[in-house]
From TrEMBL:
It comes from Oleomonas cavernae. Its main location: cytoplasm. The gene is tsaE. PANTHER family: TRNA THREONYLCARBAMOYLADENOSINE BIOSYNTHESIS PROTEIN TSAE. One of its GO terms (cellular component) is cytoplasm. It is found in: Cytoplasm. GO terms for molecular function: ATP binding; metal ion binding; transferase activity. This is tRNA threonylcarbamoyladenosine biosynthesis protein TsaE.
Length: 161
């Protein structure tokens, strides 16, 4: 569950994702809104679609090579048409102190970061960010709750259904 942040007016929208194609289309709609210094926090249980969402975002940014899950590498950096994007999977980290070893702050300074298991960042999770919480529904599809904090609130409002 996303950690509380000190902004007063986050923008929140819930979107049904009945299939993978809808998930990838949502990622493609959001990707052009990202900017250097942005954190996109992907929340959800195992199998909720975090990596697939990240792949959709990267494809929309022009990545044509294979997009592996960064579970074992912890981070996969990409040079994209939209600028540098680093895809982090922090599942194996013990806590916020371990994030220094994977270059999170440098990646955030240089470009956009997509972060699976952002809870591992603890207090280091940027307050200004886009939270995407993916959950499975009983019918086999997914649901995404998007919450824009800080500057993301206005950007997210432009793509809300």
């Amino acid at each position: 569950m996303p950690s509380p942040v000190p902004d007063s007016d986050p923008f929140r929208v819930t979107i049904a994702l009945p299939d993978l194609d809808r998930t990838l289309r949502l990622a493609a709609r959001l990707a052009p809104l990202g900017r250097a210094g942005d954190c996109v926090a992907l929340w959800g249980d195992l199998g909720a679609g975090k990596t697939e969402f990240a792949r959709g975002w990267l494809r929309a940014a022009g990545v044509t090579e294979e997009v592996p899950s960064p579970t074992f590498a912890l981070v996969q950096p990409y040079e994209t048409a939209l600028g540098p994007i680093s895809h982090f999977d922090l599942y194996r980290l013990e806590g916020p102190g371990d994030v220094d070893e994977v270059g999170f702050e440098a990646a955030l300074d240089e470009g956009l970061v997509l972060v699976e298991w952002p809870d591992r960042l603890g207090h280091r999770l940027p307050a200004e960010r886009l939270d995407i919480e993916l959950t499975l529904d009983p019918a086999g599809g997914r649901q995404a709750v998007l919450t824009g904090h800080g500057g993301w609130a206005a950007r997210l409002a432009t793509v809300a259904p």
